[in-house]
Amino acid sequence: MTDPTNDDLRQLFHETAAGIRPEGSYEEIRSRTRKVDPMARRWFLPAMAAAAVMALVVGGAFYLALDEGSKSGPAVTPDPVSTEILYAGVTAGAKAGGPENHSLFVEKHEVPALEAGKADPVAAANLAISGTPDDADYASLWPAGVSVTSAEASGTGEDRAIVVRLSGPFQERPASMSDRDQMLAINALVRTVAVAAGEPDTGVRFENAVGNGETVLGEDTLGITYFGQGDDDLATRAPVQITNLTDGQTVPPGTLTVKGVAAAFEANVGWALYVGGDAVVQSGFATAAECCVLAPYSFELKDLEPGTYTLLVHDTDESGEGLAVNQDSKEIVVQ
Amino acid sequence: MNSIAVISAEESVIDADAALEDLYAGHYARLVRLAVLLLRDQALAEDVVQDSFVAVHQRWRRIDQGSAPAYLARTVVNRSRSALRHRSVVARNRPEPAPDVAPADAPVIAAERRGEVLNALADLPTRQREVLVLRYYLDQSEREIATTLGISQGAVKSHASRGAASLRQTLSQELS
C-alpha cells in the first residue's frame, strides 16, 4: 500500500512497537499444547475403538436383558426445568441507537432436564433460536432453519468455555439484518446457553460442525469467546420489562401484583391498564429500586373485574428532547 | 484401520509441533507488539498471543497451513477484541491501569511517548484502532485488512480515514 501522506503515522507505530519487549517463551506455549496431546492421542483412538466395542457388547446385552422381560419399571425422566430464554422485542429507537430499536427481553420457559434440576442447554438454545415466545411482541432474530446441535462445557479456570455447534444457514448474515440485530441474536443465544448450563459467567465459543467457515451470522467468530450480558447490560437488555406475567395470562379478580425491572430516569416507572384497546381503567407510577440501571419495581392493580385487559409499563421522557419511551405490555385475562 | 488412524494423528501432531516452533520464531514478538497496540496491556497481550498459538496448534489439521501466519494474526486480532469486550464487562467503570510496557531501562521520554500513543489508540473505536494498527504496524494492504477483519474495503478506507484524523488531532505534538 503506498500511503506516503501517513508515513509519519507508520513511523510512530513502529517506534512505539519497538519499545515493547515481548516476554513468554516457546516452552510455555508447548507446555500448554502438551496438555491436550500428543500422548493423549496415542492411546485415545484405540481406546475409543475398544470402548465402542465394549459399549456395543454391553449395550447389546443390556438391550437383550430388557427385551427378555425385565421391563419392571420405566426409566425415570427428570422433571422439566425452568430457565431463561432471551428474545428480541421493540424498544425506543432513540435510546438504543437510532432506528435499530430492538433489545432483549427475558422469558421463563421449561426445557427438558439432563438430570434432576439441570436444564438441557441445547433445548434452551433451540428455543431461543426457533421457539415461540409467550409474548407476541417478542421474536427470535435468527434465520429459519438454524439449530444448535451441541453445547458442552470443558476446561477449567479461565480456559473454561461452552462450545456451541450450529447447523443450518447460520454462517451468512441475512441481508436485512442490522449490525445491532446481529449482535443481539448472538448475545441472546450466548446468554441463554450459559444460563441453562448453570454457568452464566462462562464464555461461549462457536465451532462449526461442517465446512471450514468460521462465521456466525456473518460475524467472524474465530478465536472469540463470547460472554452473555447480564441484567446490568443496558446495551442489550430492554430498559423496561414485566417479569412476573406472561402474555395472555389468566388471573383471578381482585388484586394483582405486577413485578418487573426497569432502568428509568429518576427510577420513575409509569403504567396504565387498558380495556377495549384504548380506554384507560387504571394508571399510576411506581419507583424502581435504583435509577438508571435495571432495578426491580412492583405495583398493584386493584379491584380487577372479569375482562380482558392490556397492561402497559413504560419509562418516562423527562429529557425534553423528545426521546421515545420504552415499554413492555402484557394481555391479562381476569376471570 | 485403527493403526492407520493412530499414525495419521501422530504425524499431524509432529507437523503441528514443528510448525508451532517456526511460527513462534518468526512471528511471536511481532504479534505481541500488535496485541499491545490493540490492548494497551502487555500481560494481557502476551496471554492473547499465547492462546492464539495454542488454538492454531489445536486446529492445525483444519486450517490452510500455507496461510498460517495470516490466520494467526487474524486470531490475535479477534481474541484481542474478545478480551476487550470481556474486560469491559468485568471491569466496567474501573479506571484503566497505566500502560505497563516500558522496560525499566528505557528513557523516560520514550516511555511517555509510547504511553501517549497507546492511550490515543485505546480511545479510538475498536474497528478504527484495528484498521490503523494492521495498516501502519503490520503494513497490510486494504484488501488484506478487509480479509483479516471480515469487512469491506470501503469500510477499511472509512475506518482508516476517521481513525487517522482522530489520532492526528490527539497526537499533534508527537507527530509534529
Automatic annotation (TrEMBL), chain A:
Q: Mind telling me which residue stretches traverse the membrane in this protein?
A: 43-66
Key words, A-Z: Membrane, Transmembrane, Transmembrane helix
For this protein, the record's Pfam families field holds: Gmad2
Q: Which InterPro entries match?
A: Gmad2_Ig-like_dom, Ig-like_fold
Entries under Gene3D superfamilies matching the protein: Immunoglobulins
Q: Where is the Bacterial spore germination immunoglobulin-like domain?
A: 240-320
Can you supply a Gene Ontology BP term from the record? carbohydrate metabolic process
Q: What is this protein called?
A: Bacterial spore germination immunoglobulin-like domain-containing protein
Task: Tell me the organism.
Answer: Nocardioides marmoriginsengisoli
